[in-house]
Amino acid sequence: MCQSTTHLAKKISKRAKINEIDIEKDDNIIEENSDDKSSIISEYSKDIENINATFDIMELYSHLPQLSNGQLDLSKIKDAQLMKTKPNRGKGYTAGNSCITEVVIDNKPTKPLLDPGSFCSGVGKSFCKTCVPNFEDHLLPIDGIKFNSESNPMKALGFFETNVIFPHINGNLRITVEFVVMGNCSSTHFILGNDYLIIYGIDLHKNKDRYFTIGDNKSQKFAFLPFKRQIKVNKVAPVSLELERFKSEQLNEAEISLHLSDSQENELSSLLYYHREAFSSNKEPLGEIIGHEVDIILNIERPYPPLVKRPAYPASPKSREALEIHIKELLNLGVIRKVGHNEEVEVTTPVIVAWNNGKSRMVGDFRALNTCTVPDRYPLPKIQISLTQISQGVYIATMDALKGFHQNVVTPRERKDLRIIGHCVVYEYLRMPFGIKNAPSHFQRMMNEIFPEELSEGCLMIYIDDIIFCSKT
Predict the structure, then answer these.
(1) Where would I find the Reverse transcriptase domain in this sequence (predicted)?
(2) What fold, for 96-223?
(3) Which pLDDT value is given to residue 456?
């Protein structure tokens, strides 16, 4: 019935046509006057229940560990997040690190290897004697099991049980481990394998903050020892001809103390020759640090605002001439490159030439870019603590990294944000420039990660690119 008071008809029939276009009746639409509503509603309810059940199953399994079974949809793929700057091509192995820690076994400190890839915990016979001399008195037989290492059969002599103590300032932890003793194992570590990593719930965290936890207490973190390659200089005997060439070409401007004897001077020259790659040369005037590439994160999204795309500053003819000299030097060192005319430019930072005592210096005005950069709040050493440490040294030696910031490589995806403009020409930084927001924090973190043992021993102090050695002897 029509409820309008202005209509005279009791019923209004629905037109079957609109502008001569037929309307097909949809069987799934419930008509207002339909008497059989319950059956249709029940069918829809079943479909909705099936849909909800499907979503519940998907949500349940999406939180579980996944394993490829040949039926997973591989059409949706996204790149995994990098937890550390990826090394250059062919240098991926430089990002690796060890899982060696420090524990106490049989009242002696030792350095075991936490190895999830090892099926069981074990130790070589020769190394075990150095830590547990009487282990053979407690050796129990192990029969019926074959052990292999990379398809090579291992000779299992038996196993012995011992306590392993993990020192911690908040309370030491002790676990009991059965180590299988291998007669033909040349490893110099106790290997804590996958068996006891599972038994005691030892979780290894290998992100930027590398540590491991034991059991349910995830706040009690244990550290891994820093990986360091040992180099023995006394085994290297350089060819005398190459050494003499090194002295004449690389050490011609070096001043060697007159108090050194001839043998001491030769030893010093041999040492410098062996580490000659640490010094700049005519062929390689600037170093390239691998594994600590610079990555800049901006808090703005494309399209970038005009704030970060700025024109070049006006300059006097004298400053322009000095700027061209600095640009040419950076091009020769491989610090910058010229941006092509067909490349899209979204960020440009103007440069200025600063003068001091008649000497010029090129400076990028990165203030606009720095306001849009997510800060890296890595702490720098406190001056008072550093001065106290230096005051305890009798012998002090200082070193300064040559163009330290320029030895850091910028990741390819972030180079487009480090472009400078001058005289209508755009250049792109391939190395970390001076003046960007997070440069000091990045360099300090890198130096602390490269020299962890020396810093912990107190014989080395590093403030960004300034290195100070202090010793009492």
Answers:
(1) 357-472
(2) Cathepsin D, subunit A; domain 1 (2.40.70)
(3) 81
Q: How far apart are CA 250 and CA 279, in angstroms?
A: 9
Q: Where exactly are the structural domains of the chain?
A: 96-223, 233-279, 293-471
Q: Which CATH architecture has domain 293-471?
A: Roll (3.10)
Place of tokens 């890595």: 378
**Tokens (6 digits) for 468:** 């100070």
**159: alpha, beta or left, given left = phi > 0 and alpha = psi -120 to 50?**
beta
Residue 35 has what pLDDT? Answer: 53
Taken in order 440, 442, 448, 450, is the CA torsion positive or negative? Answer: negative
- Quick one: which of 318, 404, 313, 296 has its CA closest to 363? 313
Residue ranges of the chain with per-residue pLDDT less than 50: 16-19, 21, 23, 29-30, 32, 34, 229-238
CA distance readout (Å), 26 to 8, 23, 29, 38, 195 = 30, 9, 6, 18, 64
Same fold? 96-223, 293-471: no
pLDDT at 63: 63
Tokens for 467, please give them.
């290195």
Closest C-alpha to 327, from 293, 364, 295: 364
Here the tokens at position 178 are: 């059965």
Q: What is the pLDDT of residue 232?
A: 47
Handedness of CA 24, 25, 28, 31 (dihedral sign): positive
CA 428 to chain centre: 24
Q: What is the pLDDT of residue 325?
A: 92
Q: What is the pLDDT of residue 238?
A: 46
In this prediction, residue 233 carries a pLDDT of 44
